[in-house]
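TL;DR need structure tokens for one chain.
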Amino acid sequence: MTSLLDLPTPSLLLDLDVLKRNLARMAEAVARHPGVVLRPHMKTAKNAQVADLAAQGKGPITVSTLAEARYFADHGFRDQIYAVGIVPAKLDAVAALNAAGNAVKVITDDLDAARAIAAHPGPLEVLIEVDVGEGRAGVLHDGEELLAIAAALGPRLVGVLSHSGHSYAGRSIAAMAEIAELERSRVVAAAEKLRAAGHALRIVSAGASPTAMYAGRLHGVTEMRAGVYMMGDLLQAQLGVHPLDDVAVTVLASVIGRYPQRQAVLLDAGALALSKDRSTEAAPKDWKFGRVLDLDGRPTLGEAMVVRVHQEHGEVRGEGLPLDRLPVGARVRVAPNHVCLTAAAHAQYHVLENGRLVAIWERANHW
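>> reply
TL;DR here they are.
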């Protein structure tokens, strides 16, 4: 296939030129902090070719599933952090990966899990997750639970890890920089507390795309993890992680119905192709279920957006919607609110370079 007109719809598109711009922008941001390594999170991309670009070869990466860990290990990415709290039932799988020459590190915030890790006979290294304000997972940086988990892990403890997901609620560069500093100070304080108790730590891992982009200083942090910045989406654009036009992933869809009486068209991309994520609902610009672009990825269709989704239907409305340009069979592209969830619905990327289809890249979906 050499044309977007040849693809079935819906299909997932990846613009390689935009991807490379986004990667360069984040690499430059992290390079402002000497001694800090970018450990890109592959939970969004789930693809080895993207990882080669993001990690500059086979550098350290972050994963979110065992399926990703195996896939990336098979593609030569040895140094990984599996950044979801580990359960004892998964320790055998991680240990097997490490026995085969990999270095997949796990995380925990639970004392019983720490004891199970310490008792496991296989090669395992662990980071303790620290809650720096998001309230999702992790122990407090100044609590006794931190020391108890560390004592249970013993020599298997190699570091601490935090995630500032609450930075997604930031609405200014100053606000995101403030969250980044709070994360830095707390995760570094946790590391210092553990070192004072006699634990040797080599990793202090922090980050999210907004904080990695706008952190003022990262003293004491050894690495930053970020992932969604690669592909970008409509929320990240409003957080200033990338320009609005630098959303690298879009969904190719076809018009399947036209309704002049309500100034709307229907697409064959609904909830299963786009997701129902409404992350821009509280942002300055609410893009409903996605921004609708023309076939070339340009914003020439007015303020077109997907305003309602059913399982396989997406309803498009918006000021200036040119119905005369959108007959049944016309093709458009939809930029997502939350690219991680949109991309997860698709098995592969149809890769564009200079506007032309050049490759198909598979995704490591599922768990």
